[in-house]
Amino acid sequence: MNEVIALLQAHRSIRKFKPQPVPDALIEEIVRCGQAAASSSNIQATTVIRVRDAGKRERLAELAGGQPYVASAGAFLVFCADLHRAKLVCEGQGGTFDPGMTEHFIIATTDVALAAQNCAVAAESLGLGICYIGGLRNNPQDVADLLQLPQAVYPVFGMCLGYPDQAPELKPRLPLTVVLKEDGYGDPGALAGIEPYDAQMRDYYRSRSGGTKDSSWSEELKVLATKSRPHMREFLARRGFTMK
Amino acid sequence: MNEVIALLQAHRSIRKFKPQPVPDALIEEIVRCGQAAASSSNIQATTVIRVRDAGKRERLAELAGGQPYVASAGAFLVFCADLHRAKLVCEGQGGTFDPGMTEHFIIATTDVALAAQNCAVAAESLGLGICYIGGLRNNPQDVADLLQLPQAVYPVFGMCLGYPDQAPELKPRLPLTVVLKEDGYGDPGALAGIEPYDAQMRDYYRSRSGGTKDSSWSEELKVLATKSRPHMREFLARRGFTMK
Hints:
With 244 residues, chain A is an alpha+beta fold.
């Protein structure tokens, strides 16, 4: 195992940060690493908004469902899927670009995620901790308004960055045999590997909560299933992502 | 700049590989790195199918629009967004899980992209080259059939991995000032930075093509705009991703 692999496998989300800010030069280097990730047909559909304004940070912390580290982290980035830029450029060439195509939505969302993960890895290599904030999709219209996002741009998630002030346990993952298959999907009813993982996650939750959280991966998934953010379809359609 | 950042910023897609295969132990280590990426609510919606069967590799190369390296690369992975597993587990808990929610589609697609990018970084740290194959979405139903994907699973993209037999130029990216903004999106009509980038990309295309390709980023985007894979919406709906 080399150092890069050790770094990748040591990832944990950090939600408690030392008060010091992250120097601008580091943020710029981190976002350059994001840009270096592959981009579908080089469309580069990622726009990153660094939020520095304290009032906006407080508001985003609320909009994300009350996550105070959105306001207190050394830096906060909003990763936007941006088809506005492509549309503007195509129209400047006398062409058109329809952000309503489902394929373009996939391209843009995937572009953002690849770029963001490079940012996460770069940040961790610099001794920073990070936490993705999918909670921005709790109130995406308010986020879009706050950041004055034009049509054909949506906030996919945020990212807190800062110097870690906690050292949480590694969260166990599904056994490799569950997620890596060969030549085909195999038996779709197979649950081998889930049961021991449930037991492992139960231990993890108990340990992390000091004994108060008694749950398994499967039980947590059942809770997750209800968090389906039913406003997303309409929100995206209003933005021009009509999923044609 | 540390070594990890240097590695990230040195990424280029590799499409020509030495004939030697990639050892199984490396693929497993690489996929473990993918698993270590953040996952929305720990849903772990990524399933990776390593395709080893030569006939299937040839077929996938065709389905991806005639990309021979899909067949010839040392290894080929298909990254699937998998909500089937979550559904199965939730139903086993007496709950339900609706893969038709747009939010769940975003969660799954994003999960896959974060995991894949970790795999890409891990692979490159091991001296391998990689290339994402979005072309699997040219004929996604045939890919799903070939790999016997159950409902609520779709192939987001593939990835070729292998020992590089080429050393392509770095592809220039948009100026940082175009993609990194502060506190808000700013002027949505601004195109500053695009013009010099177009000139830079024209030089890049000329150099890479030995003078035969005379195009800019903006001109290429106009071509991309037409490649909207209009079958994706119906394909995804048939899979259960109805975008509610």
